[in-house]
Amino acid sequence: MTYIVNDACIACKYTDCVEVCPVDCFYEGENMLVIHPDECIDCGVCEPECPADAIRPDTEPDMEKWVEFNRKYSEMWPVIITKKDPLPKAEEHDGEEGKLEKYFSEAPGEGG
To answer: Tens digit of pLDDT for each residue in 6-35?
Structure first.
């Protein structure tokens, strides 16, 4: 099992999760985070830290696409280990549907 970040993170990018991760397996894109599925140790401490409920176990239905999504972008984006402010309109976008199609950016974040 591993944990993944889904599209609920897009346009919010809360980083509460990165501070509690014992193995630094979060990677930062321009407007979301992902978890490297091969580095995640399945401890689950990140899941309750996410205000957007964007972190889910891969054992839930239809998670295969998110495992591959997280793998792809974690290999392209820089690691993030330090909490940062959420994106400026995070509260407006929290809970919004269709964020992958509307807002997703493949551009890397700054990391750090």
So the answer is: 999 999 999 999 999 999 999 999 999 999
Q: What is the rounded distance in angstroms from the CA atom of residue 45 to the CA atom of residue 25?
A: 12
CA-closest candidate to residue 53, choices 3, 88, 2: 3
Structure tokens at 48: 């309750």
Tokens at residue 30, please? Answer: 């321009």
- Which pLDDT belongs to residue 94? 96
DSSP calls for 46-74: SGGG-TT--EEETTSTT-HHHHHHHHHHH
pTM beyond 0.85: the answer is: yes
C-alpha to C-alpha distance for 103 and 112, rounded to whole angstroms: 23
Contacts of 1 (CB under 8 A, 6+ apart): 42, 57, 58, 59
